[in-house]
Amino acid sequence: MAPSAPPLDVDIEGQNDDTLDAVELSNVRDLDLGRLASLTRTLSVRSASQAHVGLDEEDFKLERVLRTRLRAEAQDGIKPRAFGVAFSDLTVIGEDMGATQLTTIGEILMAPFRFSEKFRSGRGRKYRNLIQHFNGVVRKGEMLLVLGRPGAGCSTLLRTIAGEVGGYKSVEGMLSYDGVDQKTMKQKFKGDVLYSSEVDEHFPTLNVDQTLSFAADVKAPRVRAGGVSREEYVKDVRDILATVFGLTHTYHTPVGNDYIRGVSGGERKRVSLAEVMAGRANLVSWDNSTRGLDASTALEYTETLRAVTNLLENTAIVAIYQAGENIYKLFDKVTVIYSGRQVYFGPVDKGKEYFENMGYYCPPRQTTAEFLTSVTDPAGRFVKQGYEKTVPKTALEFEAYWQASPEFQECIREVEAYNSEVQGGETLKYLEESAKQERPKHSTSKNSPYTLSFFMQFKILLRRGFQRQKGDRAYLFTSVFASVVQSLIIGSLFYNISDTYAGVFSRGGVLFFSLLFFTLNSLAEMAIQYPQRAIVHKQKRFAFYHPAAEALAFMISTIPIKLVSMTVFCIVLYFLANLNRKAGQFFIFYLFVNLTSFTMNAFFQMISSFSPSLALANSVAGLFLMVIFIYAGYLIPRPLMKVWFGWLSRVNPLAFGFEALMGSEFHGRKMDCTSYLIPQGGAYDDISTDYKVCAGTGSQPTLSYIYGDNYITDSFEYKFTHVWRNFGIIIGFMFFFIAMYMLGTEWSRLSGNEADVLIFRRGHVPVDTEAIALQKQKDAEKARQDALAGPEGESSSSSTSDEKANPEYDAIGKVPSRVNSSLRMSEIFSWQHVNYNVILDDGEDRRLLCDVQGYTKPGTLTALMGESGAGKTTLLNTLAQRINVGVITGDMFVDGKPLNSGFKRRTGYVQQQDLHVAESTVREALRFAALLRQPNNVPVSEKYEYVETVIEMLGMESYAEAVVGRPGQGLNVEQRKKLSIGVELASRPSLLLFLDEPTSGLDSQSAWAIVQLLRRLANAGQSILCTIHQPSATLFEQFDKLLLLRKGGQTVYFGDIGENSSTLINYFETQGAPKCGEDENPAEYILNCIGAGATASTDRNWYDVWVASPNFEQVTREVNELHAELSQLPARTLGEEFTGRFAVPWTTQVRAVCIRTYQQYWREPSYILAKFSLYIMAGLFVGFSFWDSKFTIAGVSNLLFGVFLSVIIGVPLMNQMQPRAIEIRELYEVREAASNTYHWSCMMIGLLVSEIPYNVTFATIFYNCYYWPIHYFRSTERAGYYYFVYILYTIFWTSLGLAITTFVPDAATANIATSLLVSMILSFSGIFQPFSSIPHFWKFMYRISPITYFVQSLLGNVLHDGEVTCKDTEFNIFSPPPSMTCYEYAQDYVDVAGGYINNPNATADCQFCKWSVADQYLELVSINFDQRWRNVGFICVYLLFNVTFIFAGFYVFRIAHWSMPKFGGKKEKKIEKKTEDEEST
Questions:
Q1: Are 866 and 997 a contacting pair, CB within 8 Å?
Q2: Does pLDDT of 7 surpass 90?
Q3: 0.85 exceeded by pTM
C-alpha cells in the first residue's frame, strides 16, 4: 500500500501489511511471523475511529518498540503517501449492449441481402448511463463496502474510482483524490490507484514464491528504511504476505490455472490478493475479492485490509457479494447500488436502520449485508406490514427516496466539507515529493508512474523470463529436441555434398533449409504470447512495468535455449553436409543463421503483438511466410522475379541472410565441371575443352570448372562483398521488428470494462431488454407479496420445514411436481476409512485425505466445509470416482454393496469451474447433456421436455436461447453457475448429486437462490453432497448434515446441523470451544473454532477431539450398521441402460458431438474468416508471383516451387487449427470425460468432419487463385487431377495437424512439433535434395515421406509433355571445331543426352538447350508421370494412417495410464502422480 511510514502513534501490526509501509525491514525480519500475524488480527477488528485506542499492556509494549523503529524511519526522511477519494454527481456513460445478436457464418453470407436491416440497426450506437448521480467520500484510512446485485453497477463504480475508464464513452461529474483530478493521478501515480478484478490471472508455470517475489521486486522503492538491500526487502515482503495469507507452504508449488495443475482455487485467490498488496497502492478497488475463499479466510483478508487502512491510512473500496456480519462491521461506510443508481451511502451502522425505516423487514439471522442487497432484489425482499403501498419498489423510486432523505443531505455536506479541506496543489506537490524518494533518480520521465526505471524493470522481467522458460519444460524440451533431430536428419540427408558442380543444387538447398527451419519455428512461437496477454495487461494496470520491457525481456530470455539449439544444429549440419570447411565461413554461417532466426522471431512476434487473436495472427503470418519464402531468392532468383513483386526481396530479411550464406559458401570455390561438359561421351572425350562448355550457370567457354562467385552472380545476382552489408541490414531489420514488437505490446489493449452482454441467436434477441427486466422485477415483486405469510413476513429456519410455511421458497420458483417422482431415490451412499496419498516431486508421500467416513441418504442436503486446502474438492473427486492420480484406499458402498460400473452414470458432478462450450446456447447445452447422459430407452422428446423443466426450475427462460460465450461476452457469473447445475440436472442423476462450491462468486441473493434450489431438490428426494464457502447463517441452516475437514483431509465433525445449527454448536461447545454468540454465524464460528484461515490457530487438535468423542463412535456405528443391514438386502438389479459406461449408443454420441462441433465452427466466424483470408490471399500471391510461367529452364523450376508453396501453406493452416482443437480437447478432458458424456473418439471425429468441409471449400478457392494464373495445363484431365490431389493434400494436413494435438500439452508445443515433422517430411520429398543425391541410408525416407507422393503427383501432372524452349540467357554456348556446323559437331550428343540446338547451321557460338521436354527434368528428379494413380493410392494410405494415428495416439497419450511393472511385493492399485496440491484444479 503506501510507500512510506505511517503515523508514529500506530501499532506494530502495520508491519503485517504488504509491507508498503516503509517499516525498517531489517528489524521486521527479526520478528516472529506467527506473532506478527496475531498482532495484525488484534488491531484489524477496530474501525478507523478506534484504530489507536484500547490496546492492552502487551500490545502497548510492542507498540512502543514499533514506534522506535518508525521514528528511525522518519529520521531517514521517508515521507508517507496516502489520500482519499470524493465523487459528486458521478455518472458513467457506456454502450448499451444488454443483448445483441450472434454473428455466424450464415449472417456474414447473408449480409449483402440484409443491408437495409444492418443500416437501420447500425445508424448509431446506443448509450446508457451505467451508473448515475453517485455521491460520496472515502477519506484516507477508511473502507467503503459496495453492495449490489450482479449487473447493478458495482464493478463500474470500482473501475471508475480506480481510473479504469477506457471502455466507457464518458465519465461525468466530479471525482478527485484529495483534490487531485483523475487524469493527473493516473498519469503520474497510476500504481497508487488500482482496480483488482475477481479473475485470478497469473503465469501458471511460475510458483508462488516467484510470483510474490516478482511483485515485491518491481515495486521496491529506491529509498528503503534502514538501508536494507533490495534482496532483503523482497524477501521480507514475500514472507510477510505469505504469512498473512497462509501461503508459505505453497512457495514451490506452481500457481496453475483451470487447465494446469497448481495450488487450490482458494490459494490462487490469496496469491492474487497478496500480489495486489505487494503493489503498495494507496487506494484499491477490490472487486469480489473474496470469491473462492472460505469464510474464515475471507474474514482474515478483510481484517488485513482493516489493519492496512488503519496503520497506513490507505483507502479500500471493496465489493463483496457474500459478506458475513463480522466482515460487514469492519467497514466504515457502505453504498448500495440498484440497477446503476445509488440508493444509499453512509456509515455501516446506519445502513440497516435506513432501509428498515423505508419499510423493509430484515428476517432473523440475515446478515446486514444480505439485507441491504436483498432490498434491491424484488424476489428477495420483505415489506413490513402497513408499508406495502408506500415503500419504493423500482430503482428509480429507490433513488428518489434516497435523494430526498436526510442521509443524502448529510452525504452531500460531507463531500463539500471534504473538498473544502483538501488542497489539490498541496496534495500533488506532496505526492510528487514522496514519489521522488522511491523512484529512480535519473528517470527518463519525471511523470512516469513506474517505481523502477525501464532498465531495472527489464532486469527483473528477464529473470522472470528465465523462470518461465524453466517452468514450461514440455515446450523447452520439444524445441531443443526438434533442433537436434532436424540437424542430424538434414546433415545426414545432405551428407558430404560434392565439391564439384554436382553439389551446387544441394548446397543451395541445405543453406536455404537452414533458414527455413528456424523461420517455421519462429512462426510456431506466436502461440506463446496470447495466453499471457491478460496477465501482462493486468500488471501494466498495476504499474508494475512497461509491457514493452516484458516483451523485450521475454524475447531475450529465450535466446540461451535458442543458442543451444542453433549451435548444435549448425555444428552438426555444417560438417555433415561438407559445407565450406574454413573457420571464417563456418562462423559466418553460424552468425547469419542465428541472426536471421532472431530477426524472424521478432518479425512474427511483432505480427502477434498487433493482432487481436491468434487465428488472425496465424492468417497474417501465413501470408507473410509465403512472401518470405518466395522472395528469399532461392525459389525465385532475383533476375527472374516479376517486376510487380520484385521489390519484396529488398525488404525481406531472409533474402539478405540467404545471400550472405550463399556468398560465404561459394566465395573462392572452384567447382569442377568435367562431368557436366557439353558435349561429352564417346568420341567427344578426345576433343579439346576449347570446344566444350560446362552446362552450368556461371560457366565460361573453354573452362572445365566454374568459379563459385560467378555462379552466384549469374544465378542470383549475389556478391560476396555484400556479406557484411547484409549483416548491417539484418541488424537494422531486427531492431526495427523488436521496436515494433515492443510498441505493439505497449499499446495493445484488452476490452474489459464492458458489462456482460447476452448474445442471442437470430430471432431470439429481446426487443427491449430494459422493459423486460422491469417487467420481471414487477412480476417478482408481485410473487413475493403474494407469498408473504404473516404480518411480519417471518420465515421458518428449519431445513426440514414445510415449504408452504416459508414465503422465501415461493419467490425462487418450485421444483415442478411432475418431476418430484423422478428425483426421489432410495439408495444410500456411504464411505469409510477413505485415505488418499500422492507422491510429490521431491519424493514426499503426502496424505491428502485421512480416514474419512460418512454417508448421504436420499432427501438430505449435506454440506462439505473446511478451509482452503483442507481437501474438500479432493474428497469430492475421490467419492465421485474422478481421481486418476495417487493411491486411494478405503471402502465406498451403495446400499452396502461395492460400487459398480454404473456409479458414475448415476451421479452428477457440478464442477467449481463453469466450463462450457462458448458457442452453444443454454438450451442446446442442456439438451446435449440430456441426450447423451439420460438412458437410451428414454425418448428424445421426453429428454427435451425435461430440459424445459430444468430451465424452468433454474429460472433461465429469459436467456435460454443466449449463447454461453466468454466472460464479458455472454452469460454472467450467476447464469454460468446455473447452467453448470442445469447440465447435471438434465442428466437426471438417479443416485447422488455432487456440487463443488456452487455459490462461489455469486452475490448473497443468487447464492440463496441456488441453495434454495438444492433444498427443493433434496426435499423432492435427491441425495446431495455439496462443498460450500462463506455461507450465511440462513443459508447454512438449509443443510441437513455437515462434514467438516481441517488441513490434511482430517475429519473434524460429521453429523446433523440441527435447527438453528443447535446440534452442531452444542458439539463444539461441549468439547471446549468458546460459546457461540447469539448473532454469530455458525459457519464462521466452527471454522474459527478449528483454527481455519491463513493465520488462525487453535489450542487443540480438533481431529483428535473428534476421534475421541462419542459423536465419532456414533457415526462409526451408524456407518457399520448401514453396511451390515444394507449388505444383507438383495442386490439392486440395474437395467442395461445403467451398466454401460455411456448412456447412449456410440452412433448417437457421434451424431450429437459432430452437430455441436460444427455449430462451434459455424458460430465462430473470426476463425473461419482468418482461414479464408489466408487461403485466398496466399493463392493470389503465389499465382501472381509465378504469373504465366513458360516452359523454360527457369520456368520449370518455377513450376516446381509453385507446387512446393502450395504444400507449405499447410504449416500456417495447421498452426491456426491446433489452438482451437486443443481448446476443445481441454474442455472434454476437464469436464465431459469425467462425466462419461461421450466417448473421446466422437470428439476427434467431430473435429475432422467440421474442419474438412471448410478446408476443402477454401482449398478450392486457393486452387483457382493459384492454378490458373501460373498457367499450368488447362486440359480437363490435367486440371481435374491436380485439383483432386490437392483436395487429398488438404485432408492430409488437416488430419496430420489433429494427429499432432494428441501428444502435445499446448498450442505452442503443437506448433513446434508441426514445424519439426513438416520440415522432416519436406526435406526427404526431393524438393531440396534429388533422390539420386540422397545418401543410400536415407533413401527409404524418400519412399515413406508422404510429401514425396504429393510432389510426384502434382509436379508430374504439370510438367509432363511440356515442350521446353530456352530463353537467350539459358543457352549453353560453345564453338564447334573449324569447318563444322553446330549440328554436325553436337548432334550425336543431342541424340543421347536430349535437348536441342537452337542454331544447328551456325559455325560458332552454338546455342544448346539442355531440355527439349520437361520430362527430362522429371527423370532427373525420379518422377514418372505414369505412376500418378499409384501415387494416389499411397496418398490414401497416408490419409488412413493419419486418421488411425488420431485415434490411436489420443488413446496412447491421453487415455491409457502406463507404469513400469513391479516385481514382488503386494499388488495395489496405484495411479501415476500428476499433482502437487490438495485441491488442484
A1: no
A2: no
A3: no
